[in-house]
Design goal:
- The chain has two domains: about 140 residues, no CATH class; about 110 residues, LytTr DNA-binding domain (OB fold (Dihydrolipoamide Acetyltransferase, E2P)).
- It is elongated.
- With about 260 residues, the protein is α+β, with helices and mostly antiparallel strands.
- The longest helix has about 35 residues.
- The two termini are about 20 Å apart.
């Protein structure tokens, strides 16, 4: 739950929620009559099928708005999985408020007494599609990690004389920077950030690090996208990458590498 959320950042990728959840809600209520909802919604001179359809439309409208907001925030804020779970709970809460208003409008008396039943209806029904979509995304992420190939192997660094100087798990590397005739590896050792200086050029290590998941973000920097918390631009147009490790200062990002890096986050 404390791992970083990895789902599609575009609004198009969120449309599955906008369509699937309302369809599941209406279909489930119509077919299975959970909690006696058929009898409860025989009000206002309309059939329960009409009410379920209207509630599904309300849910779709709410999700269309909340997922638009989420996709905009997700591009700039590093969500964790537990943040996302709270977001889904919040979506259901908003729907329940509107569900209560709709139910009261069509004949059930007492908004707050109606609201308590609507909470049961909404949360105990929508938990199934939410859990399905969340578990599906976790499985897709795990499969992607398992099939990532070289990023799961150790990366070897050689000096200018082709002598092996360091072997390290690429997942531990934060970033690499140039320093005159050296490259400096910044990496995690347990919970501490350490540096290792290697007499080599950025060009000589580029092929090696690129095959293990690190990407160039500046003429003098390679960065591990898994540690990038957010990208920001100041008033002068200077772009920097803030990392998930608080004690590490933000590193520069060139405009020519910004799009490539942002698409990996």
């Amino acid at each position: 739950m404390n791992t970083r959320l990895r789902i599609g950042k575009t609004y198009k990728s969120q449309l599955l929620y906008v369509v699937l959840l309302p369809a599941f809600f209406a279909g489930f209520c119509f077919l299975y009559n959970p909690f006696g909802m058929h009898e409860y919604y025989q009000t206002g001179g309309m059939s329960f099928g009409f009410h379920f359809l209207m509630l599904a439309v309300i849910l779709m409208a709410i999700l269309a708005l909340t997922r638009l907001i989420f996709s905009a925030l997700y591009k700039h804020i590093p969500f964790l999985w537990w943040h996302y779970v709270l977001w889904c709970i919040g979506e259901t809460f908003v729907f329940t408020l509107f569900m209560g208003m709709y139910t009261t409008l069509f004949g059930q008396p007492g908004y707050f007494s109606v609201l308590s039943r609507c909470f049961k209806f909404s949360y105990l029904i929508l938990i199934y599609p939410y859990l399905f979509l969340i578990l599906l995304q976790v499985i897709l992420n795990k499969n992607k990690d398992l099939n990532s190939g070289p990023t799961e192997t150790l990366v070897k660094f050689y000096d200018e004389h082709k002598r092996l100087k360091m072997t390290i798990d690429p997942a531990a590397v934060l970033f690499i920077r140039a320093d005159a005739n050296y490259v400096v590896l910044n990496y995690m050792d347990a919970d501490r950030v350490k540096e290792f200086m290697l007499r080599a050029s950025m060009k000589s290590v580029e092929t090696t690090v690129a095959g293990h998941g690190l990407v160039r973000c500046h003429r003098s920097y390679f960065v591990n996208p898994k540690y990038v918390k957010l990208l920001s631009k100041n008033r002068d147009g200077i772009i920097t990458a803030e990392l998930l490790v608080p004690e590490v200062e933000a590193i520069p990002v060139s405009k020519q590498f910004y799009k490539q890096l942002s698409e990996l986050l």
